[in-house]
Amino acid sequence: xxxxxLRTIVVIVTTLLISCANxxxxxxxxxxxxxxxxxxxxxxxxxxxIKANKIIAVGTTDEILKLTDSKTNRIDLNGKLVTAGFNDAxxxxxSGSLGLAEVDLLGTNSPDEVAQRVNQFIEKNPGKEWITGxxxxxxxxxxxxPDSKTLNxxxxxxxxxxxxxxxxxxxxxxxxxxxxxIDRNTKYAGFGEIVKDxxxxxxxxxxxxxxxxxxxxxxxxxxxxxxxx
Length: 229
Fold this sequence. Notes:
The protein is an alpha/beta fold. The protein has helices spanning 2-23, 61-65, 93-98, 111-124, 174-179, 212-215; strands spanning 28-31, 34-36, 44-45, 47-51, 54-59, 73-76, 81-82, 103-104, 130-136, 159-164, 169-172, 192-196, 202-208.
């Protein structure tokens, strides 16, 4: 009888130990990577262990491997980056990323400020054939839209094309308009408008899809087929 009781106790203890071990065994581990922990801009580890969609441990590849068993799914990252997931209800990731290399007009409140910031960018980037950017406000201009008169201080030596802060309008200087083949005779029947003055001359402002008449002339544009790769 005692032997039976002892065997029963051993079975129960063994089962409990296995159960506790399984609770700490990850379902998935990511190994040999560059995992950003978020603690600082430069805090990275090699590997991460995940169980039930929760991170249970981070550390070196050897440390994380010790937590695994035969059922753990192992992914070798081969040095690739891992970060937390990004969740945003409305984002233009590609254009926002490209904008980091463009002139930033956020915070400007007048045509003079716009022109000054664009010209400074041109001086700092003498090799650029096209100067692009974003951020001007409609309230910065008397008619709510920029034109060649209000922005006549901007250089016409290089092509300039700058979108409004909301991305629904843009202003192009004379060189940019010329490269796009836009003049008083150009008509646009799509969604948007080539804004013209009372004499029928283009002011430089383009609205909505009409912006594409100029932006399609940009050199070295990213191939849309590769955007999701």
